[in-house]
Amino acid sequence: QVQLVESGGGLVQAGGSLRLSCAASGRTFRWNDMGWFRQTPGKEREFVAALDWSGSRSEYADAVKGRFTISRDYAKNTMYLQMNSLKPDDTAVYYCAGQEAAKWAYWGQGTQVTVSS
To answer: Is the C or the N end of the chain the one with fewer CB within 10 Å?
Structure first.
């Protein structure tokens, strides 16, 4: 059974930092693109960042460019999202995802990030 498990969410003051982790089990994602998404109540899930299978190509949503950094540890089958200079607008449930056949086929259960002003 394939599982993606996020951790590292929590409550932080504006301007602070958090590091999210996404641990994969049940299969390797060594050859798959992986990414982060977020969702707030009443809104659709939105793209945050993605990193290709080689780790050489990353993409970020405009809202997080320059503040968030996505990375992967292939030995640990784990992906990270370093979030700096957090803003109240970053408050959301953050989900990690893995691609299969160019689609986001695997999803974690989400971790809550709350940024207070």
So the answer is: N
